[in-house]
Amino acid sequence: MTTLLDIKGLHVAIEGQAILKGLDLTIGAGEVHAIMGPNGSGKSTLAHVLAGRPEYEITAGSIEYRGQDLVELEPEERSREGLFLAFQYPVAIPGVANLYFLREALNAHREHRGEPALDAPAFMKRVRQEMTKVGMRQDLLKRDLNEGFSGGEKKRNEIFQMLMLEPVLAVLDETDSGLDIDALQTVAKGVNAMRTEQRSFVVVTHYQRLLDHIVPDHVHVLADGRIIHSGDQSLAHKLEAEGYGWLEEVA
Amino acid sequence: MSDAAQAVEELSKEYRWGFVTDIEADSAPPGLNEDIIRFISAKKEEPEWLLQWRLKAYRAWCKMAEPEWAKLGYDAIDFQKIIYYSAPKQKKKLSSLDEVDPTLLEAYEKLGIPLDEQKRLAGVAVDAVFDSVSVTTTYKETLAEAGVIFCSFSEAVKDHPELVKKYLGTVVPQRDNFFAALNCAVFTDGSFVYIPEGVRCPMELSTYFRINAANTGQFERTLIIAEKGSHVSYLEGCTAPQRDENQLHAAVVELVALDDAEIKYSTVQNWYPGDDEGRGGIYNFVTKRGACLGDRSKISWTQVETGSAVTWKYPSCLLLGDDSVGEFYSVAVTAKRQQADTGTKMIHRGRNSRSTIISKGISAARSHNSYRGLVDIGPKAEGARNFSQCDSMLIGNQCGAHTFPYIESRCPSAVVEHEATTSRIAEDQLFYLRQRGLSEEDAINIIVSGFCKEVFKELPMEFAVEATKLLSLSLEGAVG
Ligand SMILES: Nc1ncnc2c1ncn2[C@@H]1O[C@H](COP(=O)(O)OP(=O)(O)OP(=O)(O)O)[C@@H](O)[C@H]1O
Ligand SMILES: [Mg+2]
To answer: Which residues of B fall within a CB distance of 8 Å from A158?
Structure first.
């Protein structure tokens, strides 16, 4: 098993306040890791730090991704190197057509890999292929990016982008919240279809329900900036039934 | 400080058009007096009535004071240091592009408008004004077949004096303002367009102006007349070489639309903006005004302003005809130490006259960007309507955006709506786009283009692309 991502003793602060306090996590190629934990425990912070959000300051620790120092890379370089973040709260960008943006993004990735830019017909062919997988509606593609999208439509759009960009490591931050039951299954199907020996997923969620569809190899509990407990899928069931209280006694 | 703001700090764009063409010029000595005006008029072999018209304007100008009400700060202009006439030396009249000085053609090529390329480009006729004299006019024949007159202002004075005499100074009176009066006295050339009754101009008309010789003020004049039921779309594009001293550009544009006529006037302005410390750059003081004289006539201004050190410009519409329509779509980008005070005036006099104002101001670095607009509705303009929307976007936190909307309505049945917003490029928008693989620079460009979309879609297709490119050039280096 090759290691894809290796986080060691990670401390992160924002505006001087410590959020992550010594987090360790190793993800092998092809694995699915679920991260659960109480509100405000630092799950989104971890996701953003992996993607390189500038406001977060890494005060200690290291992150190695595909054998390179991830911290050294700009957010766009991480993206082109295959790191994808499905945002918990995707932002709207008025005046920028969804498809136009996506084509720019895809071609930036292709350029990085030394591949020629996709022309309009080839791009549209890919779009049609992927949009049916997640039940993306045509009109959402033509609209401005996330502008006026419903909560569920935004999440679906995130997964659609993931399918288009074919990442190596996808971090899904609460992609299941706000999705109706059918959408949840469609999204899970999209993710499962992408699972390969090389591609890994970090799935942040509050609900064991998603993990019935996307079966994780490991489940971690993040509390107060640290991973305090890890287990297999059964841990998710236990958390669903009993909450986080019992862990405090364990910890 | 945030990354984006810090990046803006480092904003520095190399001006891509900063070359000087070495062509022998035929110039007047610097300074301004009645003799200089006589010299210009004589050089241009003008009729006596035009010389007298110039002198009248000059005498009026001498008594006028430079306006100070705009939110602009710049060193006083020494009008006695400016050269008011400079023409490339030409041996003989030119009948085709092949005879044009190759250095000149090269200059155009650097500007990205190779004329022979333009010739092939479907439907774009170019009247190129190099310094003061129109060098070459293409597409004349096709236009002549439609009865359209498109020529340099000097030619119009010679060949169509009755039209020039009838309309010159009727939309922008000589004493309208300090810079307009100066232009009337010393204007050297410009463009003239006449569209006969019922004719739809078969192509976009386009003029590229370029200031070349050092210390030369450029004072061009444009006059467009659209007869009843005619239609024309006109585009001007501007760049100027890079120099340490400031250069003055004071143009006057007059548009006349008769019954059911429509004039669409688009500008892409990219004069040299000066360097990061505010040295050099064009002072752009321009008076543009259109008169919707006829019923159901329409005048539409679209401008993309990315250049100049100082811009003072208010393309306006006099809506005199009943059911006449005025539109103003503007994108003004300021970076470095640029200052722009721009907007429009919609003067409603006709019944049911309507106007729309969409203004998008983008300020970066240490620049200042002001929208100044007047909606004036007269007592007889029953049913008049105006809608104004003024949006500002700030990049970084050392720049400024200001909005000065003036509304004067003396007609109870008129409806005036005004909306204004100010936004900042949000860090989370930038981060989202970068997370998808776009560079910070591309991300800013995409956000800014999106912000300007409503205006860009008003530009003719081929120029919308150019405008988008210019926008990204202006903001180039806005990120580190
Ligand atoms: N910009 C900020 N300024 C100050 N504190 C912040 C900022 N961003 C996050 N925090 C704090 O960091 C902590 C962790 O936030 P984070 O979003 O990572 O939690 P989370 O585990 O994703 O929670 P949820 O389950 O509610 O999504 C919270 O206490 C939050 O208030
Ligand atoms: Mg979260």
So the answer is: none
Question: Is this complex scored with an ipTM above 0.90?
Answer: yes
- Determine phi and psi for B343, rounding to 5 degrees: 170, -145
CA A96 to chain centre: 23
Site of tokens 């204007």: B187
Ligand 1 atom closest to residue A206's alpha carbon, by position in its atom list: 25
**pTM score over 0.90:** no
pLDDT digits (tens, 9 = 90+) for A194-225: 999 999 999 999 888 889 899 999 999 999 99
- DSSP per-residue letters across B229-276: T-EEEEEEEEE----SSEEEE--EEEEEE-TT-EEEEEEEEE-----T
Bridge-based pairing of strands B149-152 and B189-195 is antiparallel
pLDDT single digits (tens) B126-178: 555 554 444 444 566 678 889 999 888 888 999 999 999 999 999 999 989 99
Query: What is the C-alpha end-to-end distance of chain B, expressed in Å?
Result: 13
Going from the C-alpha of B331 to that of each of B90, B128, B238, B286, B392, the distances in angstroms are: 38, 24, 15, 16, 10
Does B2 contact A75 at a Cβ distance shorter than 8 Å? no
Q: Is A211 helix (H, G, I), strand (E, B) or coil?
A: helix
Which atom of ligand 1 lies at the shortest distance from residue A45's CA?
18
Query: Residue A45, SS3?
Result: helix
Cα–Cα distance list, A80 to A101, A108, A126, B434, B438 (Å)? 15, 7, 18, 10, 9
Contact B43, B87 (CB under 8 A): yes
Strand partners, B385: B354, B415
Chain A contacts to B (CB-CB under 8 A)? 51-55, 74-76, 78-80, 84-85, 87, 90-91, 93-96, 101-102, 104-106, 108-109, 112, 144, 161, 165
What stretches of B6-160 adopt beta strand conformation (E)?
25-27, 86-88, 124-130, 133-137, 149-152
CB B320 within 8 A of CB B351: no
Token digits for B425? Answer: 């490029």
Q: Are B276 and B305 in contact (CB under 8 A)?
A: no
Give Cβ neighbours of residue B310 (< 8 Å, ≥ 6 apart).
B72, B74, B281, B282, B283, B284, B285, B338, B339, B340
C-alpha–C-alpha distance, residues B137 and B124, integer Å = 11
What spacing in Å lies between the alpha carbon of A155 and ligand 2's midpoint? 14
What is the average pLDDT score of chain B? 79
Those residues whose C-beta lies under 8 Å from the C-beta of residue A72, and which sit 6 or more positions away, are none
CA distances, A117 to each of A79, A106, A107, A108, B223 (Å): 17, 8, 5, 8, 45
